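Why show two proteins at once? Because comparison is the fastest way to build intuition. When a single record is shown, students tend to memorize it. When two are placed side by side, the eye starts asking what differs. So, the first record is below.
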Amino acid sequence: MDHLSSSQMNLYFQCSLKYKFQYIDGLPKPFKASGLVFGGAIHTAISWFHKKQLAGRNVPLEKLYAIFSADWYGQKVESDIRYREGETETSQILLGKEILGLYYHQPRKQVKGTEIPFTVPLVSPGNGTTWASIWRATLTSLRKMTASWSSKPRSGPWISKI
């Protein structure tokens, strides 16, 4: 494993089984919350906007809206979107365009980059153990548990209740 995100670590600490399902087994999620779709589409549009600015190109606001809408549509095609009570796809798209319009018209400083990767070694001050070595050992243990789960028989009183 050459990359470990904070969301991966958070998910593992919240529920190691969810981590296993998502990152080891690669199981699809049954739905995506509208807030995640909204945030992803805003992020994509603003990142695209800044990349164009870095290349010295002016971007019309309508094009920024189109990038947001295209990302929203792409996420909608990939998964079922669940909305909170009172939310609709239309209300969220209008809100996104309103936010992008406000952002577009804000004075801003020169952009220096978007999505710049960085690496930070996480080392225990007590014994010098790196977080990467602890994480690899944890994942190895989780994979071994996965192998033992998949080799267990699929019958028993708990199965008949499902």
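Second record. Ask yourself what differs from the first in the token line.
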Amino acid sequence: MSGSIVRDAAAVAAPATDPAGQRGDPAAGADAAGTAPARIGPEIAAALAIHQAPATVIDTELSQMRDCRFGPTANRSVVGIMNEFAYLADVYRHSDPSRSLAELGRKLAETPCSPLYGRHVRPDRELEAFLHLIQRPDS
């Protein structure tokens, strides 16, 4: 299994607003982006755990992410999808301010996503199918 769950820097871009919904200081966003390599592994591990990934899968992903690098993406679809997810996150957050980040992530994972239309349509279903595939005894 590859440690490439996050393939583009756009996936970990700093939020445009702070948790209170206010526009943040651009320098704060730069600080958040600067600490992304240290934060990304534990955040992905937590997201995988929320989606009931086995500990062995999470540990393998974490070991594959030890050498973490980010760069620009040439894929405009990735940027478009990330912008849509950021917009939806804002809408969900404003509709229920008490929602935790984990709950927000779970809600976003239920969102249909055009790159997945030919397979499992939603990120949570894609992850479930992937986990099933890698856990088959014959794989």
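One difference worth noting in the second protein: The chain is about 55% helix and 0% strand.
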